[in-house]
Amino acid sequence: MTSADRPLANQHIAVLLGGPSAEREVSLATGAAYAGALERLGARVSRVDPGPDIAQVLTALKPELVVNGLHGRWGEDGCVQGVLETLGLAYTHSGVLASALAMDKARSKAVLAAAGIPVPGGGLFNRHDVARDHVMQPPYVVKPNAEGSSVGVFIVREGANGPPREVAAPDWTFGEEVMVEPYIPGLELSVATLGQATGPRALAVTEIRLSTGFYDYQAKYAEGGSVHVLPAPIPDAIRDRALHFAKLGHASLGCRGVTRADFRYDGINDLLVLLEVNTQPGMTPTSLVPEQADHAGVSFDRLVFWIVEDAYARKCAGGTA
């Protein structure tokens, strides 16, 4: 490979990976994938597993750009983005406001619904009330209001004798309020979207066929946890609606870089529902975004290069979405 083939030659890029959240192991894999691609593109990479001293570490390193490979709380909810803004560093993915908004399921659902996107019903409930008795007629889903990767999610099936007692356990660490939504039967679909909040591009629709009961942490990241069917074998009209809603969700939340929108499609009732928009989608060997990019003719290294270029463009434009 010549220097002309290495578009990031000699650029110093810090990759954040690991971190303190419940999704640490996935973040380590995502960060490793980012770092490998950046090195193949010619960059000088510093791998940073952030802790409370992250500002001091980055100040000492003086990178030209930060690739955010973190998942979950702190890395995905606007906190680390705020640190990077304060340090004046260019960074990948969405900014402070969009990250915080997308991570909060209740607030992001309100924004998505206001944009005309169909979302599940339900709302926030105290976790002890949810553990004490059914707060809605089963089937329904209980999930933390501000976690990713389906951590802490329970499906209460029709005919269930009682609610999930686990949410009232002393070791529950996902907040006092939980989101409770009606369970939407049917297909699990996902769409990757690239670009600025204005004019984003949705890549494709993947159907996720599960080996577990639902699209949980195991199904997302374990070998054989799920099978991805790309393109999803769904009617053209549903495909077009999913692509449209993914772009609209990306834009309405003010996202940048790459996001992944997760849907449920109930074919019997012709119901397509957007569950959430993930602003820090995984880049592991089983991840959906690299698969969809490859399907669209974009290699993994080219995808990472685009993500970096988008971050530089945002910095030059002075944006803080």
Count of extended strands:
12
Low-confidence stretches: none
How many H/I helices?
10
User: Could you tell me the strand content as a percent range?
Assistant: 15-25%
**Number of structural units classed as domains:** 3
Mind telling me the CATH superfamily name of the largest domain? ATP-grasp fold, B domain
Kindly name the structural category: alpha+beta
What helical percentage do the residues reach?
A: 25-40%
Gross morphology is: globular
List the helices and strands and how they pair.
Elements: E1 12-16, H1 24-40, E2 44-48, H2 54-61, E3 65-68, H3 79-87, H4 96-103, H5 105-114, E4 123-126, H6 127-132, E5 140-144, E6 154-156, E7 177-182, E8 187-194, E9 201-210, H7 217-221, E10 226-229, H8 236-252, E11 258-266, E12 271-278, H9 288-295, H10 300-317
Parallel strand pairs: 1-2, 1-3
Antiparallel strand pairs: 4-7, 5-6, 5-7, 8-9, 8-11, 9-10, 11-12
Helix pairs in contact: 1-10
Domain ATP-grasp: 109-309
Function: Cell wall formation.
Pathway: Cell wall biogenesis; peptidoglycan biosynthesis
Features:
four-stranded antiparallel β-sheet, cytoplasm, 321 residues, Rossmann fold, 10 helices, cell shape, EC 6.3.2.4, globular, peptidoglycan synthesis, alpha+beta, 3 domains, D-amino Acid Aminotransferase, Chain A, domain 1, five-stranded antiparallel β-sheet
